[in-house]
Amino acid sequence: MENFAAPVNVDRAPNQWSGRIDGDTAEHLRWHQQVAALDENTAPGAVALLGFASDAGVKRNAGRPGAAEGPAALRAALGSMAIHVPRGIVDAGDVVVHGDELESGQHRLAEAVTALHRRGTLPIVLGGGHETAYGSFMGLHAAVDGARIGILNLDAHFDLRSAPRRSSGTPFLDIAQHLQGTGEAFNYAIVGISRPNNTGILFDKAEQLSVRYLLDEESQSLSEVSGFVADFLAEIDVLYLTIDLDVLPASVAPGVSAPAGYGVPYEVIHGICRQVAASGKLGLVDVVELNPHFDVDARTARSAARLIHTLASVG
Fold first, then answer.
1. Closest Cα partner for 19 from 89, 100, 69?
2. DSSP, res 290
3. What would the mean pLDDT of 271-285 be, rounded to a whole number?
4. What is the distance, to the nearest Å, from the Cα of residue 163 to the centroid of all Cα atoms in its chain?
5. Spatial separation of the C-alpha atoms in residues 3 and 119, rounded to whole Å
6. CA-CA distance, 117 to 166, in Å (whole number)?
7. In this predicted structure, what is the pLDDT of residue 2?
8. HEC profile for 20-59?
9. pTM of this prediction?
10. 272 CB contacts (<8 Å, ≥6 apart)?
11. pLDDT at residue 22 above 80?
């Protein structure tokens, strides 16, 4: 346990949380009253929020920028949610990517995730575009050396693009290539793939890498999906859950880099979150692609906050 108090280095300290106050006793508490700063007194088992303020990967992938403001919007949506489970919640602040300096930002994110995991917390990374995933995974990989990590991606896209530089479209190919270099298995499963929004070469790449996936058309009820998730969980030791909010229908999640024309129903995505949180294997979460610039009535932020609330409250 020599790494228990390893420092968590970030670029931006957390801001003061705010929200509605009905009282100060346990039955009145909301997230903004419960969130504490990360310090030496943070107990194992706490949820640790970590922002990754990055637009670089989305810009490189020719998407619409704005995801760098996602962490602040997610915190704002979480602030007034009620506390029903007495679990510690800490805010570790933000890793910030300036301009096009994505690779160094991913490295700093990985180091922060490793430190948080070694402290015994559950890191929940608030993105940022899906380039967040490479840093998130590398941090967990360093923290659980030798464990079988499974990546469950709730997403309309494979994000297995081949490109000269990392982007929001490449993270899982980047991870696969890293694991190939170390001789480790690439355990990757996806719920929500949109056939019209992924080219044939991406389906071919998924087959080459033995990626398991369900199409959005196959993911319209929880009964269709829960067995797929259970089978995947049975084969791994630690789960990395990554939620790209563009998996949700555009009516639920308009504020994303690439809104879905079809999507997976919210109740299915929420049910998956409950399932994995109760599994005992959840080691890391990230929530990505929130773009507040296009978020009508903060629908996307509120929907994402409810998923985070569930992940923090179950298990």
1. 89
2. B
3. 98
4. 22
5. 7
6. 24
7. 44
8. CCCCCCHHHCEHHHHCEECCCCCCCCCEEEEEEECCHHHH
9. 0.97
10. 152, 154, 191, 222, 225, 226, 229
11. yes
